[in-house]
Amino acid sequence: MSDVILYFSKVIENPLWFRIPLGYLILGTELEKNGIDVSIIDGNLEKKAKEKITLIANKNRKFIFGISAMTGYQIEDGLRMAKFIRKNYPKALLVWGGWHSSLLPHDTLKDDLVDCIVIGPGEEILGELVNAFKNNKDFNGIAGMGYKKNNQIIINEMRGFPDFSNHSLIKWDLINLNSYLMHDIAPRTVTYVSSRGCPYRCGFCAIKTIYKRHWFPLPTARVISEFKYLKDNYGVDGVRFEDSNFFTSKKRVLELCEAMIKNNLNFKWSALGRPNELIRYNQAELNLLKKSGLIQILVGAESADQDALDLITKDIKEPILNDTIKICFKNDISMILSYMVGFPIANGKDIDLTLNRIKSLHSQFPFGEKNNEILLFYYTPYPGSDLYQLALKYGFKEPETLKTWATLTLNEFHAPWITKKQDRKIQRAMKTYRIIKFYIRGAEMLENLYQTLHTKRKKMFLRFLVYMVYKQFKYRISHKIYFFAFARYLFYTFSKVPIFKLLRDLENETETV
To answer: What is the rounded distance in angstroms from the CA atom of residue 241 to the CA atom of residue 170?
Structure first.
């Protein structure tokens, strides 16, 4: 039986594809190194998570049940699972970690389904907590955590950052990694984080509250070792770097690219970067990035309104984005641009400027084809960000309970300072881009499905049907024909048919920005 069960809460109600729970893998690796038995259960992947828990938990034995949650839907799913544990395993200790509990420790501990919280990176904290719990010791000497004692909430002193580079190589066998491999930028793509933190000060983001504007990169040799292991043991050929800011150090990026080439990894890879960082690369350096496998970059453009960019302290000028786009398309690097609208700014002028800018970009550049996308979200006031207090001033009502924080999401938040007319305009734009996304992602999925069927050389009629629908999707994309989305109507009408449901959910899948 496990000493620790780590539950990775669902990011949305019906997740379509699954990000590797890297944080839990790192935690599990460090715990097992110290002789603590760990099980990881991913609510996004496991259809019968509760049944799986019953196989590894003991009602008469103490264990720690860890729940990781960002502000939003993960809280709702985490509470649902915590309620199940409390009812069926009364000796279990409910320990919450992740962004929300780190940003709002006192408020999180108010909930009856929270016994303890881990604040910030938990590799060292959780190990000490487990040992104290097993040996019936008090938690008062464990820096970086909060707990309840005699109906009082106690927050211990904070802890400094651990040396992330000294952590053991990840034990990938703690999960069934094959279940996470995606046919994405490459046939067998994984997600990976090669650095933590971010040195910038974006006002809508809470990363700097957790990491204090520090940036912690893993050594290149460490990253390459893990990539070689993933390639040799799982056939991985693509990596989506999910670093908050992969391009922070130009020297490190070039060093990593050279190492990927030298070790013949032949990976395709994508990452997130800022325009002011990407324009620093000369042509020879861009050629090196391409040779190492760079295929796509996600850029947080945020807004087309310079006043909004200044408000959120993005520290870039909007014209720089144009230069970045031109550089990427010139070098055949796909782009995903992420925009937000509805900042707490006078008259909501950022809305029209940004929506018009997106429309202009679609006409000037090949967005909507070749894996080039534009994402649109509502600005959402997250705790720990600089803009949070301004949002409160503009009329945002702070959720009063842990459960009500679950409703705060990038796709659903409707700011009180946005008028109904402005909101309808945003909704129309979002619907348009959802349709575009439906056809782009649908074409990718249909192409992969056709290749699979073709390889197996069976079901000729199904292969023909998939091919014809795929060609129709590609025609719409190449000619930018998105009105009268008849195929989309069919997919919703016959949403219970597996392939139709897959595409419907694909359209609604949440992006992490």
So the answer is: 16
Summarize the chain as % helix, strand, coil (round to 5): 45, 15, 40
Element (H or E) spanning 292, and its range?
Answer: helix 283-292
Distance of alpha carbon 439 from alpha carbon 424, whole angstroms: 23
Q: What is the mean pLDDT of residues 431-452?
A: 71
Q: Give which of 174, 185, 154 is closest to 24, Cα–Cα.
A: 174
Say if residues 3 and 134 touch (Cβ distance below 8 Å).
Answer: yes
Chain position carrying tokens 């009364």: 90
pLDDT of residue 16: 57
Alpha carbon 96 to its chain centroid, in Å, reads 19
Tens of pLDDT, residues 291-332: 999 999 999 999 999 999 999 999 998 889 999 999 999 999
Query: In whole angstroms, how large is the CA radius of gyration of the chain?
Result: 23
Q: Which residues of 314-334 are buried (b: 16+ CB within 10 A; e: fewer)?
A: bebebeebeebbebbbeeebb
Using DSSP's 3-state secondary structure scheme, residue 117 falls into: strand
Per-residue DSSP letters for 333-362? -EEEEEEEE--S-GGGHHHHHHHHHHHHHH
Mean pLDDT of the chain: 87
Report the DSSP pairing between strands 116-118 and 145-149.
Answer: antiparallel
Alpha helices in 185-249 (DSSP H): 207-211, 220-234
Determine the 3-state secondary structure of 168 from DSSP.
Answer: coil
Q: Which residue has the higher pLDDT, 456 or 133?
A: 133
Q: pLDDT band for 508, please (50, 70, 90 cuts).
A: very low
Residue 413: what pLDDT?
Answer: 77
Cα(65)–Cα(245) distance, rounded to whole angstroms? 31
Does the pLDDT at position 65 exceed 70? yes
**Inter-CA distances, 216 with 165, 192, 196, 271, 326, Å:** 8, 14, 5, 16, 30
456-462 long-range contacts, CB within 8 A, separation 24+: none
CA distance 442 to 466: 11
Residue 508's closest CA among 78, 79, 207, 73? 73
Q: Are 475 and 487 in contact (CB under 8 A)?
A: no
CA 242 to CA 195: how far, in whole Å?
A: 9
Q: What length is written for the chain? A: 513
**For 458-493, how does the pLDDT look when each residue is reduced to its tens digit (9 = 90+)?**
566 667 777 777 677 666 666 666 555 555 555 544
Distance, CA of 338 to CA of 333 (rounded, Å):
16
The better pLDDT of the pair 161, 454 is held by 161
